[in-house]
Amino acid sequence: MNIVENLKMAASTLTSNKLRSSLTMLGIVIGNASVIALVGIGQGAQKLAKEQFESLGPNVLFVVPGSQEERRTSFDLPKTLVWEDADAIAQQVPSVTEVAPQINGNQLITYRSRNNNKLVIGTTPEFLSVRSFEVAVGRFINENDLKRNNRVVVLGSEIAEQFFLQTNPIGKQIRIKNISFEVIGVMESKGSFLGSNQDDSVYIPLTTMSNQIVGNTSPYGTQVSFIAISAKDENSIRAAKFQIENLLRLRHKITDSDDFGVQTQKDILTIVGTVTNGLTFLLAAVAGISLLVGGIGVMNIMLVSVRERTQEIGLRKAIGAREKDILGQFLIEAIILSATGGVIGTLIGVGTILIVGAFSPLAATVSPVAIVMAVSVSGGIGLFFGVFPARSAAKLDPIVALRSI
Kind and range of the H or E element at 181? Predict the structure, then answer.
């Protein structure tokens, strides 16, 4: 019997048991759809994280307080990084162009009857260029604001909309920690960064933040949350990191482990890439289990089919069908079930990715590699799990099979 006849017979058998065939394919469908969708979403998350870090600027470095071990295990970091460190970096490190220290803290913001806890960032004029932010309306903090401890504030775009609706906020007074501040500007929309909404913050002079909002919390100077630094160019990043580390070790009189960390955009991207790759692999592995379960389902149904069709097998062998003909027929049935389930699962998986991409910030992408692997695996599973029932059918003794008629 040739392959065309086997295909026709397999198709006829499967279509005559539509419900059983559909339920058999269900595990394969779910497995394929899960693998393709989860891999696509994982790659989308990785791409989104990369784009967000690139939006910081190509030559940005961050100096953060605390040793690597303390940052990993403690929520209360030591108060070792100060504004004076930022000034020293700006003046003594030749491979950097601008330095923007900042103090972060959540505070109650009030305007008339509206109030909410928002992130307040005390910073310097260099913040705009170092962090690639822009002002939409009004102006940003300047040197006079820093020198005079001016009570001025620049609003994030979402806060401006929440508190002032459609009115112009410039010149209005808001209260931060029950202290009155004049609105001098509104930032351009920047979007979210690793789950943190950058448009939901307000910016005030670093001196005002230190002296009037949080107070002086370090015995070594004006404590800062971290320092953002812009290197001259991409080729200067490594030199800037080396020079900053050496300078801070001298300033902090470090003889053992560092009480600070210097992270480049590339360092952070590597960490994020490792995490997202691991999560994507884990999700794909979990989804792959359903493919295995679907393959076992195919084998179970094919064994049941062999038992139900014992008479048919005996009759075919009695009139001249060879073992390889019977083997081929049952293998083709198993492969058709798995391949059809793979195609349907692929379509569902791709559709899920497109829906996620349309209704979320994830730039979910369809991975051709994942599609090829999922369909190949599902077809291979059909072949692998179909071998045992097919061999069982091929090995049936025609005399024994005909006795059951």
Answer: strand 179-187
